[in-house]
Write a structure and sequence with these properties.
By secondary structure, this protein is an alpha/beta fold. Helix 3 crosses helix 9. The chain is globular and about 55 Å long.
Length: 307
Amino acid sequence: MQHEVRGGTSAGQRRRGITFLAALGGCALVAASAVPAAAHGGGGGGGKTRAYVALGDSYTAGPLIPRQTDANCARSDQNYPSLVAARLGTTPFKDVSCSGATTQEMWKAQGTNGPQLDALGRTTDLVTVQVGGNDVGFGTIIGTCAALAAQDPAGSPCRKYYGASGVDQLSVTIARTAPKVAQVLRDVHRRSPHARVLLVGYPDLLPDDGIGCAPSVPFAAGDFAYLRDTEKRVNLMLRLVAYASRTEYVDTYGPTVGHDMCKPAADRWIEPLRPASPAAPAHPNAKGEAAMAGAVLNRLDRGWHDR
């Protein structure tokens, strides 16, 4: 790997890694089931959390959601880290999430945004990380599938395109992203050894029942279920990486089911490719960010062993 982490690997860590790889291989073609989170009813850490750092990509940053506080990263002060920080009363709070970030931007600058991992320190108490979607290529996949839909509107041209070699290339890309996310988490734990670290999954983008809504979301009918399953594979990968890295996983898919981009404007928390509310296409709007904040707070209300 390009970025090395100091220190050796214990036998326990190796066993966890072997377990993770076996599980990922066995589940690569199976979608992860989502369990809805319970309603948040507490203070998310009992006031013990002090210094909070948020790392992540556009799903964390909240592009186009008012009020934008960083033009370079399209970061909103109504994104889920800001809502979590306000609920917990954390001081200091550093949100270095940046739209377009991949795992590489954890170690290198992105425009005026420095390497995100540099925001961490030994006194950091809480870290949330949401990354991997751009490594898998969410934006490219959406654009490709929308363009292919005209070839076979009733079929699944996108699934056929990515599976033309006989192996689903998106499943391969997801598997290759796993060690990149794991490396990020290792460095987070190294830089902030006393912090509670949460890896945040991605919300439900498309109908969980696989039924499409073209032309408002311009995918072929059969590709809605394929893309839904692809996102579930991404979240399954993140869940397994979190387990292998001794990191807590936050499910944001379950709490957002029924509020995907196909739903009416009043009910959706993810905007379609032509947004009706202030948000980037195929991204959470303000309601979606609030739902992810609730999922993070629910996770914080639970103990480490309540997994």
